[in-house]
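User: Just a sanity check before I run the rest of the batch. Below are the structure tokens for the first item. I only need the designed sequence back.
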């Protein structure tokens, strides 16, 4: 893919983030408004975006492409989990941050960043492929991710604030609007269901709001952060370089001639290059782990992604 196209799209997303910084600094969005917008994006706009991906022309998406995408989705999570463990060994973070680093390496921002970037670069076809990543993500993050967050809490203070959490609670959390939308999209696609034009228009209009709103939300997070103190963390720079540049570039070089469809493979590599997911900070806070460090990783990696994703794109 043309590096200019990727860089141009990332600049557009950056501009949206800066608008989020602006509205927060001006006081147009307060803490309560931020939470409300976040709920709106997560529970309404993003699900509509996922469904809208299968309501357009999907004739170009063959069974071979879907099967190839499934293979890469499974490989993605195998790589993410293994690399998370290896990066702790390479970077040697303090004992109280070991599980936090595994969380940051394993769970990237496939929602707020992954879907908008895939949509910007590959259109609705890219959103269809990301839907598979979203489904598996929710299963893993509410099982393995939550267990890591609880371990991170014990590493920090020796106390697990979620001792009474059970599998039923985790299962309930897996059933959320994003998962339901992904399942619905896959059913619509597999069954070849054609929706009436008004429904398609509704999904498209609502889905289109996801990208600017989610980018502005990231901008608000950046505006709230203490960037001056964040920029002193050399270990985080190494983490970003290894996880968001070296890893996807190495995988792209090793697998580029293995016969996968260009769009399917492009989505796979771009998802590998995504910044740290914001959900791990919520998990860390809930369990009593170091959520402030998670926020630092999310903010710095998101800012870095404006440059690192185009660099990774050079190898597609």
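Assistant: Here's the designed sequence for the first item:
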């Amino acid at each position: 893919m043309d590096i200019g196209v990727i860089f141009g799209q990332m600049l557009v997303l950056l501009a949206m983030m800066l608008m989020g910084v602006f509205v927060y600094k001006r006081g147009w969005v307060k803490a309560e408004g931020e939470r409300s917008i976040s709920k709106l994006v997560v529970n309404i706009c993003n699900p509509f975006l996922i469904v809208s991906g299968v309501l357009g022309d999907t004739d170009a998406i063959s069974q071979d492409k879907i099967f190839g995408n499934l293979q890469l989705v499974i490989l993605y999570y195998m790589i993410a989990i293994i690399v998370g463990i290896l990066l702790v060994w390479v970077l040697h973070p303090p004992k109280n941050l070991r599980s936090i680093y595994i969380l940051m390496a394993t769970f990237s921002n496939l929602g707020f960043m992954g879907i908008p970037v895939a949509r910007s670069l590959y259109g609705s076809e890219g959103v269809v492929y990301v839907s598979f990543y979203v489904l598996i993500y929710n299963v893993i993050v509410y099982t393995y991710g939550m267990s890591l967050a609880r371990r991170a809490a014990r590493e920090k203070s020796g106390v697990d604030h979620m001792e009474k959490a059970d599998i039923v609670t985790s299962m309930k959390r897996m059933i959320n609007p994003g998962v339901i939308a992904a399942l619905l999209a896959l059913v619509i696609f597999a069954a070849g269901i054609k929706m009436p034009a008004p429904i398609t228009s509704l999904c498209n209009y609502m889905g289109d709001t996801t990208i600017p709103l989610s980018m502005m939300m990231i901008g608000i997070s950046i505006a709230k952060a203490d960037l001056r103190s964040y920029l002193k963390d050399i270990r985080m720079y190494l983490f970003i370089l290894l996880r968001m540049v070296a890893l996807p570039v190495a995988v792209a070089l090793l697998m580029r001639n293995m016969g996968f469809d260009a769009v399917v493979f492009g989505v796979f590599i771009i998802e590998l290059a995504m910044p740290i997911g914001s959900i791990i900070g919520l998990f860390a806070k809930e369990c009593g782990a170091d959520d402030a460090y998670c926020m630092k990783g999310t903010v710095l990696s998101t800012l870095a992604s404006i440059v690192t994703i185009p660099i990774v794109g050079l190898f597609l």
